[in-house]
From TrEMBL:
Coiled coil: none
Species this protein is from: Mesobacillus campisalis
UniProt xrefs under PANTHER family: ABC TRANSPORTER ATP-BINDING PROTEIN, ABC-TRANSPORT PROTEIN, ATP-BINDING COMPONENT
Keywords: ATP-binding, Nucleotide-binding, Transport
InterPro entries to which the protein is assigned, alphabetical: AAA+_ATPase, ABC_transporter-like_ATP-bd, ABC_transporter_ATP-binding, P-loop_NTPase
Annotated transmembrane regions: none
Domain of life: Bacteria
Name of the protein described by the UniProt record: Sugar ABC transporter ATP-binding protein
One GO MF term attached to the UniProt entry: ATP binding
Domain ABC transporter: 22-255
């Protein structure tokens, strides 16, 4: 479906000395420098997979996606999507993919949303019956009814994003690239959008490649993650596997009655568990520990011996903290080989 081999991208930039003099000089004597944004990336994504492509700002996510959509030509390496080389077959490739780029629109600014959909119907040559069914389904799932008659420029960010999502999936593409689809949206819209993406993946088997800084998007939509760091892949694997592999920290939240004196960690847990800071007035105490060293049952029984526990919840390791840990190890450990070997 999507195959990427040793994919690389270098941007060529004009080198400029600072100030006006530098600007004038660069007009006559152009000097260039190169920026390696993607430094040899390999992955294969099968039909129907939901993959989160994550990494820090400037890691190379958008550059990779632009090469997959055919907007950019790689400097080296190979890429095929649905058997096509995207930058060589841009139009044909465009027919079988959908895309949402957070800040940009594929809708027509001055005309009502319904008319934008009609134009896309003609561009993608969607049969009448299929188009009617799809629009009716999207209208319901994304609650588009009140928006269909409104020109795109009058929509709020959340309203526009719901319409963008509909436009990206309208021609039932095999692959959809979503670059920051929930950025700046309130929680209700985020929830609706995540539900929609998951549903489309389920109904049509759409392959989804998602970039986001919102780890909740990843948790709810993706089965697999690829973490990119400074243009190279740091991790590629299942979301559950990375939690097992890296998520050694476990947190248990204990509900305690009002205490007469400050909470003290039971002696057997000293050096084994850490008390997480609580919000003011909170009667909950949260303990974090390495579950490979200390068993949850041991932490719970020691707490119950010392305190009158009303209730407790064991929290799953969060993907946020795992990604942070990977980056920390990378900063401390130096090479990728070491980080992965230590994992
Ligand atoms: N058109 C361009 N010309 C020159 N350099 C660029 C260009 N686009 C991106 N870069 C550089 O390439 C690197 C990777 O950028 P890219 O946009 O792919 O990162 P990203 O992972 O998508 O980041 P973000 O999360 O901030 O969107 C960055 O150092 C960026 O400055």
């Amino acid at each position: 479906m999507i195959t990427v081999e040793n994919l690389q991208k270098e941007y060529k930039l004009v080198k400029r000395d600072p100030g006006l003099k530098g600007a004038v000089k660069s007009l006559f004597h152009r000097q260039y420098e190169t920026k390696k944004a993607v430094k040899g990336v390999d992955f294969t994504i099968g039909q129907g997979e939901t993959v989160g492509y994550i990494g820090a700002n400037g890691a190379g996510k958008s550059t990779t996606i632009k090469m997959l959509t055919g907007i950019l030509t790689p400097s080296a390496g190979k890429v095929t999507v649905n058997g096509l080389v995207p930058y060589e077959n841009r139009q044909e490739n465009a027919l079988s993919i959908g895309a949402v780029f957070g800040q940009r629109t594929q809708l027509f600014w001055d005309i009502p949303v319904r008319e934008s959909f009609n134009l896309l119907k003609h561009i993608y040559e969607i049969p009448d019956q299929e188009f009617a069914e799809t629009v009716s389904m999207f209208t319901e799932v994304l609650n588009l009814e009140p928006l269909l008659g409104v020109p795109v420029r009058q929509l709020s960010l959340g309203q526009k994003m719901r319409c963008e999502l509909a436009a990206a999936f309208l021609h039932r593409p095999k692959v959809v690239y979503l670059d920051e689809p929930t950025i700046g949206l309130d929680i209700a819209v985020k929830v609706r959008i995540r539900k929609f993406i998951k549903e489309m993946n389920k109904i049509w088997g759409t392959t989804v490649l998602l970039t986001t800084h919102d780890m909740q998007d990843i948790e709810e939509i993706c089965d697999r993650i690829i973490i990119i760091d400074e243009g190279r892949i740091l991790y590629d694997g299942g979301l559950e596997e990375i939690k097992v592999q890296f998520g050694q920290k476990r947190v248990i939240h204990f509900d305690l009655p009002e205490l007469d004196s400050p909470f003290i960690l039971p002696a057997p847990l000293l050096g084994m568990a850490e008390v997480l800071p609580a919000s003011e007035g909170e009667t909950k105490v949260s303990l974090s520990f390495d579950h490979e060293r200390v068993k949850s049952s041991f932490v719970i029984s020691e707490m119950m011996n010392r305190y009158d526990i009303q209730d407790l919840t064991i929290a799953d390791p969060k993907i946020e903290s795992i990604v942070e840990e990977l980056y920390n190890r990378r900063e401390q450990g130096g090479t990728y080989e070491q980080v992965l070997a230590n994992s």
